[in-house]
Amino acid sequence: MSEYLIAPSILSANFARLGEEVDNVLQAGADVVHFDVMDNHYVPNLTIGPMVCQALRDHGITAPIDVHLMVKPVDALVPQFAKAGASIITFHPEASEHIDRTLGLIKEHGCQAGLVFNPATPLSYLDYVLDKVDVILLMSVNPGFGGQSFISGTLDKLRQVRRLIDDSGRNIRLEIDGGVKVDNIRAIAEAGADMFVAGSAIFGQSDYKAVIAQMRRELAR
Ligand code: DX5
Ligand code: ZN
């Protein structure tokens, strides 16, 4: 399997000094910045938009920025985030009227594209677009908040998606988001994930480097 990516969710960072937080977590060994966009409509919380993504780029962040859109509608934000420096843009298929079009829009704007599945969202949304996704993101909590517990049924769903990806022969990242911690990351990897979002598990500790090193140790075990 390809290398594992650790993607801290900045939802749990200190927003009053976000640039510094992102610098610190990248220096601590993170691979990707996970950027949670919530609109108080698709999910019951309100966070950050393209201006903040642009501000991180202007601050000098060069690592990939993984924009997780928890918004409805989706399309208008795609060009804005691409312009603001997003590397990956994922969205929830039930929040888009035209899934194929939205995936195409993301690619046209030079970003990698992905679909996000809530715990109860069926995988059948993938049936006709598997050849168009670069990332499949499984939510292991209901979206909207950091700090929730991992829903264990997601492990079976991960195994199913892992089989789909392997059978397709395509190079698709399998990302997991919600409740990822040092003590469950290995089981999650064994179920097939290769990209791990972790918010509270990382930003909730004072030593980001120690947590990320522990996660990597678990993954290498
Ligand atoms: C939840 C967000 C997650 C969240 C994860 O809707 O998509 O990215 O920040 O936070 P933890 O790792 O604390 O569950
Ligand atoms: Zn997220």
TrEMBL record:
Entry GO MF terms: D-ribulose-phosphate 3-epimerase activity; metal ion binding
Catalytic activity: D-ribulose 5-phosphate = D-xylulose 5-phosphate
EC number(s) on file: 5.1.3.1
Pathway(s) where this gene product acts: Carbohydrate degradation
Cofactor note: Binds 1 divalent metal cation per subunit.
Gene3D superfamilies for the chain: Aldolase class I (3.20.20.70)
Keyword Isomerase: yes
Keyword set, alphabetical order: Carbohydrate metabolism, Cobalt, Isomerase, Manganese, Metal-binding, Zinc
Signal peptide location: none
GO cellular component, one term: cytoplasm
Active-site residues per Swiss-Prot or TrEMBL entry: D36, D177
Pfam families (alphabetical): Ribul_P_3_epim
Residues the entry annotates as binding a divalent metal cation: H34, D36, H68, D177
Positions that bind substrate: S9, H68, G144, F145, G146, G147, D177, G178, G179, G199, S200
GO biological process, any: pentose catabolic process
Cofactor: a divalent metal cation; Fe(2+); Co(2+); Zn(2+)
NCBIfam families (UniProt xref): PRK05581.1-4, rpe
Role this protein plays: Catalyzes the reversible epimerization of D-ribulose 5-phosphate to D-xylulose 5-phosphate.
Family named by the database record: Belongs to the ribulose-phosphate 3-epimerase family.
Protein name as annotated: Ribulose-phosphate 3-epimerase
Provenance organism: Oceanisphaera avium
Taxonomic classification: Bacteria, Pseudomonadati, Pseudomonadota, Gammaproteobacteria, Aeromonadales
Gene that encodes the chain: rpe
